[in-house]
Fold this protein.
Amino acid sequence: MNRLTENLSGWGRYPVAQCGLLRPERHKGLGGLSAEGGIARGQGRSYGDAALNQDGAVLLTERLNRLSAFDSERGTVTAESGLTLRELLDVVVPRGWFPLVTPGTGYVSLGGCIAADVHGKNHHHDGAFSRSVLEFELFDADGAVRTCSPDVQSEAFNATMGGMGLTGVIGDVTLQLRPVETAWIQAQHAPARDLEQALTFLQDNEHDARYSVAWIDLQSRGRALGRSVVMTGEHAVRDALPAAHRADPLQLKLRGERNVPLDMPGWLLNPLTIRAFNALYYRLEGRKTSPFIVGYDKFFYPLDALGHWNRLYGKRGFVQYQCVVPLEQAHETLRQLLDALAASGHAAFLGVLKRLGAASAGQLAFSMPGYTLALDLPFGGAATLELLQRFDEIVLAHGGRVYLAKDARLSAESFRQMYPRYDEWLAVKQTLDPQGRFSSSLSRRLGIGEPS
């Protein structure tokens, strides 16, 4: 298969790499292509360089999106790794099923969900995506296919879940789904005056729900530092719906997508415009203190309604910094991070805070019991990188780690400190890929796959 050379980026549009693209049309071709190595890429929704491979091969899987089996009685589904959550939802929700775990966008492939072991608003109850995976095919560096599950080829299973695509190419995936009565969510908001109250809301029984997340006003200062709107939700039962929706509770008319047509000017997102937006958002969303019904798409995927929303950050793109910090040190660590952001003068548009539960079994699992904070920052060159380095120092000092699926600039030294089970992962990697054929721009930057 001939390679087409093209410049690619992650969703943050930083960095950019020249890659040789391979696009298989059929699942049966994966064995031969996996032997060429490189890195697989689904929808390109990882933010940094995880699905880039400077001067190397990138295997595009978006055409491998066939759904081969769906047991509507047991709620299990088998599909190719290029199938997106959006495509899966279109099939399973009208039949009364929903993914056990979903991240904040439906435009991510099943293979990408496995490679990053994605998490959602319900991690404190249901764990990460790996909890829903019954088995998957893994094409190794010899082109051989292994069927991996928590009980069969379990070491390969755990190394692949969160392994950033570096153990092989994922073929078919089998998932367990969750039964639901409706396509709707019963949601409720609670305004939090500061970071301390936001953390209280996220961990107390009064505000607990299967799904919870806090939007943070990153422009708040002083006593209001970390003021938030805590948003919770449960899958709505049929009797809770308005009369107009009860006749066909599993049908949902999805919103039409509007596109950002071009790159916005760099000055659009500045402290003044962001502060004004945040004040309005806090006031409007914080008013929704009574339960209300909302479609699953609006609750889980609010940004999906705006196609190419990454263009809002202009041609230079943006970086997302996502970390997790242990429960016992969460308040102090998060306060230091928000103080460092405020002192820097950087305009940060989006801040999201979630509680995480038990860690996944994967050796490179991101999750741990604690809180995860995600910040979107317009990329401003050296000044932005210096700020993120300061964030790393704070996170490391308190026993936390950075999420590799969002990373674009972490150092190899910091990676080794943040991921203490790396050597365990490396031993499995060397069994599956002894010649190190599967690599990416991220893996080379962090030295992942290289002997200690």
